[in-house]
Amino acid sequence: MADSKPQPSPEDASIDLDLAFSADPQLPPELMAAAGPWCAPPGAEAAWQELLTGWLQQLQAELAAPLQAPAYSLGLSLVADGEIAELNSDWRAKPGPTDVLAFAAQDDDLDGAPAMPMDGCLELGDIVISLETAARQAPEHGNTLEQELLFLASHGLLHLLGWDHPDQPSLTAMLQRQEDLCTRVNVLGSGSNPGL
């Protein structure tokens, strides 16, 4: 006789996340305060852990099969403009700071290898956000600094999961998916549309 219990949807499945979070201690104190729980120790890592785990659960059904996993590992760093400008120059050959960079570990272009779990976790890569750039552009997008940080984190996470925006339709779809993620956790409702 078949089991009649409803099977959990991928979104309901429990996801484990091994998160390495850091915030540059040299960031301006007023910006760290304005970032609220997303930058203040010791609770910032737990706040990001909960948020990113929730997003990964929401995204499970949309992911390519090699990226669907019960456990993930990723890094998230909040840095100053100087550090992100250096990364932007080194990795993208672009001058000056940017708002967010994503370094995808499962990008086929990096080494051609298929997605492989390490220590039971699928390594996604790293998201680096400039707190200073986020603070400057938040008012332009009608966001608080907290909202802008979460919008940028969602952008970085989608890049780690294979999303890209080489043209306007794909950028529009990606920005809409970011807003959907943020709205579902009640952190963004401004209709922001950063020029990423």
Fold and architecture overview:
The protein has helices at residues 29-34, 44-59, 81-92, 108-111, 131-137, 145-160, 168-184, and strands spanning 16-23, 71-79, 100-104, 117-118, 121-130. The chain has 196 residues and is of the alpha/beta class. It has one domain: 3-Layer(aba) Sandwich (Collagenase (Catalytic Domain)), CATH 3.40.390. Strands 1, 2, 3, 4 and 5 form a five-stranded mixed beta sheet that branches. A hairpin with a 2-residue loop joins strand 4 (117-118) and strand 5 (121-130). Helix 5 crosses helix 6 and helix 6 (145-160) crosses helix 7. It is globular and about 40 Å long. The N and C termini lie far apart (53 Å).
The average pLDDT value, as a whole number, equals 84
In the CATH hierarchy, the architecture is 3-Layer(aba) Sandwich
| Distance N to C terminus | 53 Å
Shape: globular
Please, what is the CATH homologous superfamily? Metalloproteases ("zincins"), catalytic domain
> Roughly what fraction of the amino acids lie in strands?
15-25%
Which secondary structure elements does this structure contain, and how are they paired or packed?
Elements: E1 16-23, H1 29-34, H2 44-59, E2 71-79, H3 81-92, E3 100-104, H4 108-111, E4 117-118, E5 121-130, H5 131-137, H6 145-160, H7 168-184
Parallel strand pairs: 1-2, 2-5
Antiparallel strand pairs: 3-5, 4-5
Helix pairs in contact: 5-6, 6-7
Quick structural summary:
This protein is an alpha/beta fold and 196 residues long. Helices cover 40% and strands 17% of the residues.
